[in-house]
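Reader question, answered in our methods column.
A reader sent in the components of a multi-part assembly and asked whether the whole thing could be modeled at once rather than chain by chain. We filled in our standard form and ran it. Here is what they sent:
COMPLEX SIZE: two components
ENTRIES:
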Amino acid sequence: MRNIFKTTSIFCALVLLLCVSPKAQLLKKIKDKANQAVDKAFDKKVNETTQPNGDNSNGGNGKVSNKGGAGLKNSSPPDVMAQIADAEKAHNAGNFNDARYSVQQALMGVEIQLGREILKSLPSTVNGMDKDTAANIVMSNNWGWNNLTIQTVYNQKPEKQMTITIGNNSMYSGLANIYFGNTAYVQANDKDQNVKQTKVKGYKAVIQYSDNKGYTLLVSLGQTALIVWECVNFKDEDDVMKTASEFDIDGIKKMMGEQ
Amino acid sequence: MKSFILSILVLTAATCVAQTQDFAKGIATAKSSYSAGKLEDAHFALLQALQEIDIRIGQEILKLLPAQLDTMKANIKEDQVTGNAGFVGSTILRTYGVSRSCDLSIIGNSPLIGTLNSLINTPIIGGMMSDANNKIIKVQGYKGRLTKTPHEDGKASYSIDIPMNNSLVTLKMENGTDTQIMNMANALPLAQIAKLIQ
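And here is the structure of the entire assembly that came back:
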């Protein structure tokens, strides 16, 4: 009796499974499709609610973000001779304020030209890296060398990059003075020495390393000028030193008017 | 007395002529160096010309200053004007009085300008920094800061700092009152000074 009941139960279960299985699969498919459609509709509704204009142009505070423009037209540096002539005229007329402005403009014009010449004098290839002339920057935002920045970038695929900055950017000047004037700090920790003094072609230099920035090498030129090499993805210290020594540091120093 | 005044006038005229010549010399060198492609030499010559202009501007400002402040007479012989082409620009200094003294300085490109402007223009910072010895004031419409330094003998010295573009005008007085220094500051030709140094 027990056996008969057991056999009947198994038979019924098999029949039920065979009958129901295709239907169940079909039902599952329909259910999945319905879920997808509902999710899509819901997401769309949420997006419409959070972005009333239907695009991503809005910032957090309802401000429209800029999508592009023609930018500024490149203006030519001040005409040095014209500015000198203006300065003379203003000075002779006793208008010292205008004379001062014109001399400042003339100085800016000279600095920009000088910066361009220094950039031109830099080698086109250094230690296997090519100069990226599109990254050239000559910036003179004040007179008297204080904020003159001359910069260019060298690249080697895939990810090796070196940025050279020449000038007397006050930020780096401060950094260099701290290092050059405080040897105890620089040489303090032999175990994890990330900053140390060195020499490049006879010039005093400071080299530092950090995992985020890579190598930074600073060379002090004369009274105020500095050359800074920022080297990303360089193999080691020797690679950095080899790259730096390929530059004509004497020539740069001379062009910067340093003794 | 007449001969003394005459000698001062001659000396002033001679200095002006010398400065004009120095400016002309600097400009001539700048022109010739620039034409010859010697950019660094042109740069240096222009810096020198700029210094000469700064000195002339300083002299013009000194001419505008009153001959007497409160009861103190100007010590014209001690007038100083320097033109520094660097981080700090030209410096103009005039002192007044002998036993009781005050001095006025105008420093171009002063490094203190940034801090002072924050104090003057930011109510929260200005409020925090204001106490019995410091307060924000206005002199002829120009914002500034009045500082009192009490001495042990009960007397006090005062100073007023007024930023003007990149220059800092500072008036200092020993042994006086805040009313006295405010009156003295109000006697200065600030609008004309601002026009020259801007």
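What stands out: Chain B is about 45% helix and 25% strand. The interface with chain A takes residues 20, 23-24, 27, 30-31, 34, 39-40, 42-44, 46-47, 49-50, 53-54, 56-57, 60, 85-87, 195-198 of chain B (CB under 8 Å).
Send us your own complexes using the same form.
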